[in-house]
Structure formats: structure tokens, C-alpha cells
Write a structure and sequence with these properties.
Blueprint (H helix, E strand, L loop, with lengths): L3 H26 L5 H6 L6 H12 L2 H14 L1 H33 L4 H9 L2 H10 L4 H19 L3 H16 L3 H25 L8 H12 L17 H14 L4 H4 L11 H16 L4 H8 L4 E2 L2 E2 L5 H9 L4 H43 L6 H28 L5 H25 L6 H27 L18 H34 L1
Antiparallel strand pairs: 1-2
Length: 522
């Protein structure tokens, strides 16, 4: 339970935070004339601001709240997965893909991933398919809403469902108007808070190192020896190095192919800004990824993962850790309040990006091409349609998030990862081929995308069904498809690898075909 001082302090910070957000929203809304302004902004943004905005958008509540909870449950194996191998692949992929994606996106005036795909392959059907698939990212929105609800409810001693409703109304409400113009500035503020909070959380465990690293790990081992092992066979996510290294590297490389991440580069007006943008985002992002180590500290504070005799759900561990550790004295309480705002900022920044990018794709890439052939619709009318799309997203997100709060299964992270991983698994090969392969037939990346979608959901749902219902033996792969909780990274990495094999394999065969014809004719 939060103290009275924490509750009052949290309300004061919420009032200040909400006022700052609304200021930038009203300021940005006055410059929005059409859907392009909403998606990319009408201001000329500093590359540092856009870099901070990207770092904040990439670092969702999963990094600050959900993933540390999983590490509290399963230990060092989770740190290796989420703080070493996944970030290594992610920042490398971001650097490699960003420049070329931006360069082509600028040349064809793309405002979303779906429009980038459609323009690159000159296929409206391909664009519509990607736009329709982007709706699945609502699963990621749900994760953030659940995390924000847990943080606010813990800090305010409030009812979770009521808190969820207020969060949905506020965030989706202001995102109907601000768009990119306000989002870059709000994300920059959020990133600044998150940097301070990341350092505080990482350093909050210093007392646990009074006997050095060996003493720290001995303390963890005394709770559960598996917490200090590089693999944790008892977990559903970090059982072996295939899950911890291979799957996370593959997924980490593809994760940047999400609309709220890779399209950030389209906000840069000059090519010379790209390097500053990348340096800023990569350095800050590495710091953010390191926050998951706080999960180990939380396990030392809650060795049996209970609070006041009640079992702590995965998604409540870090909010409870903050409330408990930072509640003794005025200074400690103030630091705790700042951390709470940092956790909120981590969620808000990504949530804003997802709402903006998904609604833009629905409006620009689904509704616009279908309606424009029938009637002439003005930019203002499309902005109104975009607001309706946001309202629908809000209602659907609330319903699903409420269910996750009332009937959780280990963590909302599983639902979110399943949806978002399926999305960027599908996009990885089309973006990769669109950037690096010339003269590729549009049907090849489209088939690769279909394969990725089918394989991802097939591995996650169909193989477990065959294994359980018909006792089909998949050999060493059995352990990844057994149990109620399955790792979406296994499904995604399998989908990505097979999609790459199919896409580039078909392209290679197609390139050989003319050569064979020439030989036959000679």
C-alpha cells in the first residue's frame, strides 16, 4: 500500500505531467492540416529530439515494468536475453536499416510502413495487407495499458479497472489531436524523465552489492539456485541458449520493423541529421535496456514474490518494488514519485507512437484508398476519420486490457509479444528486400510475408494443438510448444528464418531463370 504522502505526491505529479502534455498537444494541433502533418509533423525537428523520441518509443512499459518482473521470476537467464542479446541485435539492425528506409521513404513521401511498402513495390494490395495487419499491434497497446494501470493503481491505492478507464480516456483523447507535432516534444520530455529514472533504478541495487558481485549472486542463489544460472529450464522463456541467444537475436534484428520505430526517421528533414539521430537513440536505448536488472533487486526485496501475504503477479513486481523501497523519508518518497513518473513515461511514449502510427495506417492505407475511388474526401475529413479510428482503438484496447487485468496468464507480455512479433516478422523480409534487393518481383516479398504470418501463428497455436491433441512428436522442438505459456520469440524467430529462406530463395531462382533461357537460346 502506498503511503498518504505518496498518494498526494503522485496526484500532484499527475497534474503537472498532464498539464505539460496538453500544452504541447494544443500547440501541435494548431499546425495540423492533414493526415501527413499528423503522421510526420509540420515542424522541423532537431535530430536529437527525434532520437530521444525514438529511444522513448522503443522503450515501452515492457522494458521498465513487465520484463524486469519476468527477470525477478527467472533470474540471470532473463538478463542475458533482454539486456544483452536482444539489444545487441536491435541497435545493430536500427543502424543498418534506418538510413536506407528513410532515404526511400522521403523520395516517395511515405507516411507509414504500409505506404512505404505500397510505394516500394507499386502495389496497393500489398499496402492494404500490411495496414490491415497493423491492427494486430493493439496487443502491444494492451500491454502498455496494463502496465500503466498497475503503476497508477499501486501509487494511488486505486481500483485497477477505474484507473484503466481514466488512462484510456486521457491518452487516446489527446492523441486524437496532437499527432507527430506534439509527440516528438512529449516523447523528449518523457525520455528525459526516463533517463533519470533508469539511472536511479540501476543504482537502487547498490546496497545489495556490499559484499561484491559474489555476495549479490550468493544472495540470489540462496533464494533459488536457478536465478544465477545462464539458462533456466524451469521458465517458459529462458530454457536454453536457443531461446536466450538465437531467438532473441533474430527477433531483435526484426523488432525495428514496427511503425512507431522505423518511421521515426521519416521525420528528419535533412540527410545530415541521420547520424546525430542514430547516436542519440542508440546510446539512450542501451541505458534503457539495462533497467531490467532491477528485476534481480526486486527478487531480493520479495524473495518469495509475495507482499503482505498476497502473491505478486509478474506485472505488479516492479511497481511494488518502487513503492516499498522508496517510501522511507521525504527524499526517498520524492525519488519514488519520480520513478513512478518514469515508469509512466516509458508507457506513455510508446503508447502515443502506437496510437499515432496505427490510426494513421488505418486512415491513410486502408480507408483512403478504398474511399478515394468513390468520392473526393478532403484532408480535414480524413482527420475526422482518423479520430474515429482512435476511438475504436480505445474501446477495443480497454475491453482486452480489462480482461488481462481480471484474468492474467503469467504476464500480459505473452499476449503483446505474440501480436507485435507476428507483425514485424511479417514485415522483415519485405523491408529487407525493399532496401537491399534491386529488381525484385513484388510477389516474392508478398509470399515471404504470408509465410511469416502463417508460420508464426502456426508454431504458436497449430503445432501445440497437433502435439497435444494427436501426440505428434516434433523432437527437440517439443518443449517450446508444450505448456499453457509459450514463448512468442520461438514462433517469431522460426517465422523470420523461414520467411528469409523463402523470399531470398525465390528471388535467387527467379534470377536464374533468365540465365537458363539465354543459355537455351544460344
Amino acid at each position: 500500500m502506498a503511503t498518504t504522502a505518496q498518494v498526494i505526491g503522485t496526484w500532484i505529479l499527475i497534474a503537472i505531467y498532464a498539464s505539460a502534455i496538453l500544452f504541447f498537444v494544443f500547440k501541435g494541433a494548431s499546425r495540423i492540416k492533414g493526415i501527413t502533418d499528423y503522421a510526420l509533423g509540420s515542424f522541423s525537428f532537431s535530430p536529437v529530439y527525434v532520437g530521444l523520441s525514438l529511444a522513448a518509443a522503443m522503450t515501452s512499459a515492457a522494458t521498465f515494468v513487465i520484463n524486469p518482473g519476468l527477470i525477478a521470476n527467472y533470474g540471470v537467464s532473463g538478463v542475458l536475453s533482454y539486456a544483452v542479446f536482444f539489444p545487441l541485435a536491435t541497435v545493430t539492425s536500427l543502424i543498418v536499416l534506418t538510413k536506407s528506409f528513410r532515404r526511400y521513404g522521403q523520395s516517395v513521401q511515405a507516411v507509414s510502413i504500409a505506404s512505404w511498402i505500397g510505394n516500394r513495390y507499386k502495389s496497393q494490395g500489398f499496402s492494404i495487407f500490411i495496414a490491415f495487419l497493423s491492427i494486430i499491434l493493439i496487443a502491444f497497446i494492451v500491454l502498455i495499458l496494463v502496465a500503466l494501470t498497475k503503476v497508477f493503481a499501486s501509487a494511488l491505492n486505486a481500483n485497477e479497472i477505474t484507473t484503466l478507464a481514466v488512462v484510456v480516456i486521457f491518452v487516446f483523447g489527446y492523441m486524437m489531436f496532437g499527432g507527430a507535432n506534439s509527440m516528438v516534444y512529449t516523447n523528449t520530455i518523457q525520455a528525459g524523465i526516463m533517463i533519470i529514472v533508469a539511472l536511479i533504478l540501476i543504482l537502487s541495487g547498490i546496497p545489495f552489492f556490499k559484499d561484491g558481485f559474489s555476495g549479490f549472486f550468493q544472495s540470489l542463489a540462496s533464494i533459488d539456485p536457478m536465478l544465477v544460472k545462464p539458462t533456466n529450464p524451469t521458465s517458459p522463456l529462458f530454457r536454453d541458449f536457443y531461446e536466450i541467444i538465437f531467438a532473441q537475436i533474430v527477433v531483435g534484428a526484426a523488432v525495428v520493423c514496427q511503425p512507431h520505430i522505423i518511421t521515426k526517421s521519416l521525420m528528419l528533414k535533412k540527410e545530415s541529421d541521420v547520424n546525430k539521430f542514430l547516436v542519440t537513440s542508440v546510446v539512450v536505448e542501451i541505458l534503457f535496456f539495462a533497467v531490467v536488472i532491477a528485476g534481480l533487486y526486486a527478487r531480493l526485496v520479495f524473495p518469495d514474490l509475495t507482499l503482505s501475504g498476497q502473491a505478486l503477479g509478474n506485472d505488479s513486481i516492479i511497481p511494488s518494488y518502487v513503492v516499498k523501497v522508496f517510501s522511507n523519508g521525504v527524499v526517498s518518497t520524492l525519488i519514488g514519485l519520480l520513478i513512478i513518473m518514469g515508469l509512466v513515461s516509458a508507457g506513455m511514449s510508446t503508447l502515443e507512437g502506437l496510437i499515432q502510427s496505427i490510426s494513421t495506417s488505418i486512415t491513410n492505407d486502408l480507408i483512403k484508398p478504398l474511399w478515394s475511388s468513390k468520392k473526393n474526401i478532403s484532408d480535414k475529413q480524413y482527420l475526422s476519420i482518423n479520430k474515429i479510428a482512435i476511438v475504436v482503438l480505445a474501446i477495443a484496447s480497454f475491453i482486452i486490457a480489462r480482461n488481462q487485468l481480471l484474468q492474467p496468464k503469467l504476464s500480459v507480455a505473452i499476449l503483446a509479444q505474440n501480436g507485435s512479433y507476428a507483425y514485424f516478422s511479417t514485415l522483415f523480409v519485405p523491408i529487407l528486400m525493399g532496401i537491399f534487393v534491386k529488381n525484385v518481383r513484388k510477389w516474392i516479398p508478398f509470399i515471404a510475408a504470408i509465410v511469416a504470418t502463417a508460420v508464426h501463428f502456426g508454431v504458436f497455436y497449430f503445432l501445440p494443438y497437433l502435439h497435444t491433441k494427436f501426440t505428434v512428436d516434433f523432437g527437440w522442438f517439443n518443449k517450446y510448444i508444450e505448456g499453457d505459456v509459450r514463448n512468442p520469440a520461438i514462433a517469431a524467430s522460426t517465422a523470420i528464418v523461414l520467411s528469409i529462406a523463402v523470399g531470398f530463395g525465390l528471388h535467387f531462382i527467379w534470377k536464374l531463370k533468365p540465365a537458363k533461357i539465354d543459355v537455351a537460346n544460344s
